[in-house]
Amino acid sequence: MMHTRPDCRVVGLTVIALGAAAVLHASAVPAGPLFDPHYTIPWWLLATVFAAGEILVIHLPSRRSAHTISLAEIPLVLGLAFVSPLGLIAGRLIGSAFALSLHRRQGLLKLAFNLSGFYLETVVALSVAGALSTGDFLAPSGWAATLSGVGGSSIIGALLVSIVISIHDPSRTVREVATQLYSGFVVSSGVGVIGLITAILLWVDVRSVVLVGIVGVLAHGAIRVFGRLYRRHSDLLSLHGFAAEIASDAASVDEAVALMLTLVEERLRVPGAVMVLDTGEGEPRLWAQLDGNHMAKQADPGELDRALTGISQCTHLDACECAALPGGGKTRGAAVAITEDARLAGVLFVMDRKGTADPIEGADRLLLRSMARHFSAVLSGLLANERLRAEVIEKERVIQSKDQLIASVSHEVRTPLTAVLGFSEILREGVDRLGPDELNDTAVAIATEATELSHIVEDLLTAARADLGRLEVYSVPTSVMPSIKRAVMHMLSPAGRSVSIEGSNVRAMADPARLRQIVRNLVANAHRYGGPNVVVRVEESERAVAIQVRDDGSGVPADASARIFEAYESAHPAGTQPSSVGLGLPISRDLARLMGGDLRYLREDGWTVFELVLEPTTSSPVVPIADRRTA
Asked: What letter does residue 558 receive in the DSSP assignment?
């Protein structure tokens, strides 16, 4: 894709070439033929030969450019020998214009540039050959004049091409430009020698045109075979370099895609490429590479579907259209699938080269498909590494959480167990010395600590059954208020804290034992981390029964609200609050969901709220719910 500034430069170069050709034509081109042949070739027949030379062009690609053998020097030599100057100019311009516009489908600017260049090349050849010609074509001086004219024409053509390539690729070095000039001159001179031999044979005997035709066909076939072998060798080198670069330099999916598009644009010499990819991790993404400018964005949810639909309709890399390029509209090109472990993960779209009838040729498509396969393998490896890295991090987190669990369980169990042992020792050693009130207080303390210990054990057993898939919950019509009061009644409130119960006695579908366990965990959590005032509130609506445990504490930090329902997690740093096992909230939410409800965290008007939502009472029979786990 050309930018405005290079376009202006090409227009300027076209005008200069056209002006120089016109001046040289008027001042240096002879009016009559350069030689005196026995017969002449009609200009229209010469135009046909020029058109054939442009149609049968042979490309020899390299990494950053392509050497082109157009065979136009053969009809140029024939024109110098057998056609008048005006006929030669008309034949070349008309024949070349026919081939470039109808066969190669070049754009207006490129067509104008090429025709002005051909005009300048032709008048240079006529001027140089006319200045050196002695009138005898078969004499060495005639050969030298003809070859000098072709050589001058070749230099002008190579110089113009090198200038326009440098305009669109300023990164090319002087050495690369010089190499382009040298290779263009050598190729054109070689084809010019072939043209001179052909002209000599036709000058001597017109019947040699048959022999010339046979030799020409064989030579053209040999050159095309050489071109294909050269292209195969170039593609193998390009593919080897591509595989080495993308395997060694890509450390992430983003880097791999950016490198892939850059290498595709560079090695296939296309104006741009687009990739839409769904890695299976979140929303699809779109990357584009246009004239070396890279961009990436989150893909529209339907963008991948449209891209995959397009690839399914592009059988064997047939030409298709892409509407995902910046700026809107559809762009012609070729598409190839990107896979990840046999899964269709996305599509790579490569834009057509400008001004060509068949821009993505068979060899280009084979190289593109091979590059896509290599990228798919690299993509599979990168995604596997990312998943493995995430799994390792998760395993390390679980191990750390288990270590924290062991430490918390040890502390939680040791505290009530020590109290039970201590009070029991007091009773055993001093029962005769204690009065009735002291005996009662000691017994109450033992019972309280034993209850706390039983609650810890109950949570651990519930978590273990849930891990094994053996946790059973019976959802039956239940009066929620008695269960709430029973759960709170057996809990000892810390000093300076109170628990109040609000609401009426309503019925909901629940397991009474599990409901008490949930309320107990929520109240204990409020005592442990919340404010001094704790309220258990019951609300009823047509669709649900809500049991809220509220406290006036500071609540859960915003960055921790998403993980408080995960096992062994705590929203409070270790050592800042009384320790806990870290299973109360995860178990409570699992139990709520097994009963057909849910447990969620809210923050309302300065109150921390954990809301248990249950289904209202129905006439459904008792249903045991087992072997169900929540994410």
From this structure: G
Give me the helices (H) in 469-627, please. 480-489, 512-529, 584-594
C-alpha gyration radius of the chain: 43
Provide the mean pLDDT of the chain: 75
d(CA 580, CA 464): 17
Whether the Cβ atoms of residue 317 and residue 369 lie closer than 8 Å to each other = yes
Q: What is the token pair recorded at 308?
A: 């995959």
Largest CA distance in the chain: 149
pLDDT > 90 in the chain, percent: 9
Domain residue ranges in the chain: 4-240, 250-384, 470-626
Q: What is the token pair recorded at 612?
A: 């248990």
The H-or-E segment that residue 286 falls in is strand 285-290
Q: How far apart are CA 489 and CA 511, in angstroms?
A: 19
Going by the DSSP 8-state scheme, the letter that residue 621 receives in this structure is P
In this prediction, residue 588 carries a pLDDT of 85
Q: How far apart are CA 595 and CA 514, in angstroms?
A: 9
* Topology adopted by domain 250-384: Beta-Lactamase (3.30.450)
Residue 261: partners with Cβ closer than 8 Å, 6 or more residues away: 273, 274, 275, 287, 288, 289, 294
- Provide CB contacts within 8 A for 618, sequence distance 6+: 477, 509
Q: Does domain 470-626 have CATH number 3.30.565.10?
A: yes
pLDDT of 6 > 90? The answer is no
- In sequence order, the β-bridge partners of residue 540 are 545
pLDDT tens digits, 150-195 = 888 888 888 888 787 777 666 667 776 777 677 777 877 888 888 8
Residues in CB range of 231: below 8 A, 6 or more apart: 59, 60, 61, 363
Strands of 450-544 (E only): list them.
472-479, 498-502, 507-510, 533-540
Give me the DSSP letters along 316-364: GG-EEEE--STTSS-EEEEEEEEEETTEEEEEEEEEPPTT-SS-S-HHH
Q: By three-state DSSP, how is residue 568 classified?
A: coil
Q: What is the DSSP letter of 207?
A: G
Q: State the angle between helix axes of 209-249 and 362-430 in degrees (0 to 180), rounded to the nearest 10.
A: 10
Distances in Å between the Cα of 197 and the Cα atoms of 114, 137, 146, 463 are 27, 12, 11, 95
What is the distance between the alpha carbons of residues 493 and 509, in angstroms, rounded to a whole number? 28
pLDDT tens digits along 373-386? 888 888 888 888 88
CB atoms within 10 A of CB 193: 15
Task: At 320, list the tokens.
Answer: 């298709």
CA distance 452 to 445: 11
pLDDT, tens digit, for every residue of 319-374? 444 444 444 445 667 778 788 777 777 778 787 765 444 456 667 777 788 888 88
Question: What b/e sequence results for 196-227 when a residue is b if at least 16 CB atoms lie within 10 Å of its CB, and e otherwise?
Answer: bebbbbbbeeeeeeeebeeeeeeeeeebeeeb
Residue 167, token pair as written in the block = 């305009």
Distance between CA 628 and CA 603 in Å, rounded?
Answer: 29
Whether the CB-CB separation of 534 and 550 falls below 8 Å is answered with yes
Is pTM beyond 0.70? Reply is no
Paired tokens of 246: 């993308």
The CA angle 601-602-604, to the nearest 5 degrees, is 160
